[in-house]
Recover the amino acids of this structure.
């Protein structure tokens, strides 16, 4: 199902394309960010500034002078020169460092150990590996956002719209070269709760997998739901690990904002291996089986009608307006209820119906439908619904087979 919003690719490396303000940037934070991305301090005047060089062969010919504090008159000039040099360098991590310095944010990194054959293989194979990594990253973030909406082992179609909207401030950075690495930048305001949930869910999933492999029991997965583990997360992790020699997710906290309460400092990645796949698949199936159907009273507009003959029962699709956080549901109705739904559609009215959202169908189907009745709406909403009806009238007449009038 396409997401209305979600994590987006960063365009400019920093907001507005402008460098962070040297007058406001914290040199200590810059030093932490440089070290996090593999830069090394190689001398400098103790207590005044440090000389930093990037990892790899460029380290011999590229360096930054970063003041240790603002205590000296030339610190602002040194910091401005360092930021300008960082913006012009070809180092891949430079844009991430500048972005994190301009806007305090947590970094989430996905890593896949793709076999050498995939890295050096045909362009199509590399493109597939990169798409798999992007998909795994998006769905990992979506699982964390869903956990913020409700505690459930299986979310299905529920809360997808709100969860996807919560990802709108998350930026996906960097090239997923060969499907090996990808980084997301999550601004502390407002995305830190999302990052904290993901941190806790990943560690809970790792512990549950270890428990399953050590004891054969699945009870740790049941307890892990409270930490945000769900079928959606296990499927994202399966996508991340499948076809690799191993994979991991690392969360690095924004140094300017500090470590969130209840979380440890930057640590090693939470890693998963192909040997974990059976436990993750078993957990996903268990979550789907265990999640109960939900009794609801829905209000929605009819946007599809279908039945095989000129009379009898039929199926309608409702665009949900109230009663459940799902965009659409399908409902099988008896002949009388189907007629009521068709008439309501013709005159531009929503309908109300009681039933149970079927968890086995991903909460996309309403079973045991009863009490179908049209709902009165105000004139503005009625006009909007009638406009939508006119735009889809040809389809409606074809679907009804001329039996929805009167």
């Amino acid at each position: 199902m396409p997401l209305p919003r979600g994590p987006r690719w960063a365009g400019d490396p920093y907001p507005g394309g402008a460098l962070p303000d040297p007058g406001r940037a914290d040199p200590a934070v810059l030093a932490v960010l440089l070290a996090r991305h593999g830069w090394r301090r190689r001398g400098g005047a103790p207590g005044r500034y440090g000389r930093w060089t990037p990892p790899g062969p460029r380290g011999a010919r590229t360096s930054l002078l970063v003041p240790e504090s603002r205590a000296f008159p030339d610190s602002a000039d040194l910091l401005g020169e360092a930021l300008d040099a960082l913006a012009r360098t070809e180092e891949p991590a430079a844009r991430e460092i500048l972005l994190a310095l301009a806007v305090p944010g947590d970094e989430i990194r996905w890593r896949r150990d793709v076999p050498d054959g995939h890295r050096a293989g045909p362009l199509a194979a590399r493109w597939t590996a990169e798409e798999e990594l992007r998909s795994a990253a998006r769905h990992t973030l979506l699982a964390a956002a869903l956990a913020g909406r409700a505690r459930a082992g299986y979310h299905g179609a529920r809360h997808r719209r709100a969860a996807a909207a919560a990802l709108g401030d998350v930026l996906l950075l960097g090239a997923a070269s060969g499907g090996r690495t990808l980084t997301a930048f999550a601004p502390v305001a407002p995305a830190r709760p999302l990052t904290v949930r993901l941190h806790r869910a990943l560690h809970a999933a790792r512990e549950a997998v270890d428990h399953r492999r050590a004891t054969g029991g699945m009870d740790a997965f049941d307890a892990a739901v409270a930490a945000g583990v769900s079928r959606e997360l296990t499927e994202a992790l399966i996508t991340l690990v499948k076809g690799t020699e191993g994979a991991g997710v690392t969360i690095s906290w924004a140094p300017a904002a500090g470590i969130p309460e209840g979380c440890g400092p930057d640590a090693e990645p939470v890693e998963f291996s192909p040997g974990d796949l059976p436990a993750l698949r078993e957990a996903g199936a268990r979550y789907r089986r265990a999640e109960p159907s939900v009794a609801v009273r829905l209000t929605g507009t009819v946007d599809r009608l279908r039945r095989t003959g000129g009379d009898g029962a039929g199926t309608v699709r409702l665009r949900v307006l109230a009663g459940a956080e799902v965009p659409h549901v399908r409902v099988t109705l008896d002949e009388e209820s189907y007629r009521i739904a068709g008439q309501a559609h013709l005159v531009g009215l929503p309908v109300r119906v009681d039933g149970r959202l079927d968890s086995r169908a991903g909460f996309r189907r309403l079973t045991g439908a009863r009490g179908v009745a049209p709902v009165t709406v105000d004139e503005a909403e009625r006009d909007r619904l009638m406009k939508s009806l006119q735009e889809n009238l040809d389809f409606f007449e074809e679907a009804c087979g001329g039996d929805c009038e009167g």
